[in-house]
Amino acid sequence: MKNIITKFLLICSFFLCSEVGLVAQDGGSKATEAEEEKGTIRFNGLGRTFLSRTGIEGDVIMEDTSTIGRLTDGEFLLDLAINATPNKTSEVQAIVRLRNEFGGFFGAGMTVEVRELWARGIIADFLKYRVGDMDVVMSPYTLYSPDEEGFVNEPAVFQPLKEVIDYEQFYTDDHTRRLQGGKVDFGLNFGSVLEDVEVSSFIARIRGTDFFTVPSRLVSGGTLDFSTVTFNDSLGLKADFGVNLVHTFDDLQSGNAVTGIRNTVATIDYDVTVMDKQNMSLHLSGESGRSNIASAERITNADGKEENIMLSEEDDTFMDVGLTFKLKKQKLTVSANFIDIGPDFFSTGAQSKRIEYGVDKSYYNRIGTDRNLRQPGLFDLSRDRALYTFRTSDRLMAYDPRYSNTMPYGDATPNRQGLKFGIHYGDDSDKIAARVNGAFLSEIRGQGTNELKNFTLIKAAADFNFHRFLNWKNELRATVGVQLETTERGGGEFEQVDLSSNLIDLGLEVELFPKFDVLLGAKLFSSEGRDYVPVLSNFNDVQDFPAPYIADDQETLIGMGIKYEFKKDIYMTLQYNSFNSELGPDNPNNYDLQQFFVLYNMKF
């Protein structure tokens, strides 16, 4: 380990002694043309220190002598990005991570690894390419990373830990997925009818082989995005449309694996500008397509040649069509969509969740005298990186119906039909910014019964910038978020479903002095009723139903702290969080968690 560190420091010293231009991570400082001509090397990255002390109390550990009452942990981390531009048309970057766990001395607990490595450039001023690590997004039904549950309008006091999760798992606001492979992009311009077309294609490996029973898994795909000229200048009539194709497959020639999957999703999306005037606009948009999922087996035929045969195969379709109306001066947007997502629609790249409920938690994974698994709560969803993943799954992942039952897999959730709507008002810089989103959906095919579940989801959020009302220089902001969700099903007693959940986010940010904030926040959650959560086999096929899922839960997460921003992207926050979980009155499994932590975060 010492040799590795020594070599790393020597390399850094060599670079520092060369002609080096320091730039911000967002590329704020640009090299001059002369520097670009002869090549430059730049350093940027991220540094983080996180120290926490977590404690547990409550009924569940009254007689538990094996659970430690207080846990202290943390990390010191440096991600050093080395970016080089040998010439005007090419660029390479590597991020080297140095991490030391809290309590590690003299190299104990130290790790050195490469977090990111890529190269990109332009060929003949026409073709853009990238190889190595890359972020790719297509459409919500092909390749897309849907938002995780448990969040409506996250209070500022909880955002620093959420930002750590997003950074570690490569989550972006654009819902991209982190892949490793190659990607090319280019565009063509036309003179009439079609204005231009953008072409993008990629291939990546998303799982390696163990050379025995697990084959390598790859994903490839591409998009063709067309844009037309304006057909009617007075109305602003024009259209954008595209073709999307993504194919996920197992390479059965890698290792000794004999079975694997094939998943193909092909869609057409469109955005027709029906009207675009100075004060208002109207858009007709949507996406439709088909998926195919198959299980393949590698066999040796009578001629001694290897070939793949399909063991099982399913395909289905989906449709999503809607209208969006905007009042530009009023900053008001209203949208409504009708969706019909087939029961057997399957898209590995779009339905894979960010949260893995079956993995071990970082804090108190098992508690009580019986050492039972602790059910994940708001405390875990808001800060535990162990629950999160950016990897894709070849089957529908487990979900918690308390937090998300209407669309647990995002827009691409299969076996759903109905109406989605949205109302958005204002911008983040306005005095008030608000939004309401919701869905009224039902199943297309019953699960274990001919009766269909009906879902209702309402999510509302508002930001109140009181400092703008009062013309204060220092910021004073309150945030509110509410999620109401119900699931119902009729029929006989063994078929009936009646589950309701409520989540409330409350936040307050007070800037006492320039760059010094006091943060307060709370997340209040309750769930009551029962549901039947199926056990799935193969892809979307119901294998069995366990006992009814019974909920009688209340959770409260309260946070308070201070935050000082030294400069943009460099801050420190000191916080105390308290979490209470009640699984019904007088339940012996009720417990409380408290966490005190300090986080120093620096981007440079």
Notes on the protein architecture:
This protein has 604 residues and is mainly beta. It is 7% helix and 55% strand. The chain has 6 helices and 26 strands. The chain has helices spanning 2-17, 33-38, 159-168, 348-351, 378-381, 466-470; strands at 40-57, 70-87, 90-101, 110-123, 127-136, 177-189, 194-207, 216-228, 238-251, 259-276, 280-300, 306-327, 332-341, 366-367, 372-373, 416-425, 432-442, 454-465, 476-489, 497-513, 516-531, 535-537, 541-544, 549-567, 570-582, 591-603. The strands form 3 sheets. It has a 22-stranded antiparallel barrel. The longest helix has 16 residues, at 2-17. The chain starts with a helix and ends with a strand.
- Note the beta-strand portion: over 45%
How many strands, what sense, and barrel or not for the largest sheet? Answer: 22 strands, antiparallel, barrel
Number of helical elements: 6
Q: What's the total count of β strands?
A: 26
Number of self-contained structural domains:
2
Low-confidence spans: pLDDT under 50, at least 5 residues?
A: 1-36
Alpha-carbon distance between the two ends: 26 Å
What integer value in Å does the Rg equal? 26 Å
SS content category: mainly beta
Write down the CATH topology of the largest domain: Maltoporin, Chain A
Report mean pLDDT, rounded to a whole number: 89
Principal-axes geometry comes out as globular
Percent of residues in helices comes to under 10%
For the record, what CATH class of the largest domain applies?
A: Mainly Beta
